[in-house]
Amino acid sequence: MRDLYRRLGIAKDAAPKTIVRAAERCNNRTLKADALSALGDAAHREAYDDLHDLLDDLGRLRAGLGMTHAPHWQGDTANDFSSSPERIVVRQELLTQQLQIALSRHQTRWRRWSWLALVVLIGWLAAYGVGRWLS
Question: Are 60 and 46 in contact (CB under 8 A)?
């Protein structure tokens, strides 16, 4: 769903007369018909705004999750709901960060196991010493 306000170059809170003038100046017949149909009537405009806000929220959620369009779609009609490229966190970057965390945990694992082995060894030695002392 296209952002008709953006396509017409008007603000979302534009007056009905401004919308009609912007639509009449538009050279694209389909866009002109869509704008007049969706934004020309107050009830249709309210429904369009509600639906557009929902789709905008979903698009931002997708972008936040890294599920964005390919770079060659930037600026295209289908890209109305995507975040700007500066704000997008690419899934590859997230995976790289997760791999770095897993690698650092793996590299420090021997420290945890060595402490456990040391505690077990001390326990065995203490048990052996107590057993020798009692016998």
Answer: no
Burial profile 95-105: b = 16 or more Cβ within 10 angstroms, e = fewer: eeeeeeeeeee
Ordered per-residue pLDDT tens for the chain, 135 residues: 578 998 999 999 999 999 999 999 989 898 899 889 999 899 999 999 988 888 888 877 777 676 665 554 555 555 555 555 555 556 677 777 888 888 888 777 777 778 788 889 999 999 999 988 887
> Residue 56, class by beta-carbon neighbours within 10 Å (0-12 exposed, 13-18 middle, 19+ buried)?
middle
Q: Which residue has the tokens 């690419």?
A: 90
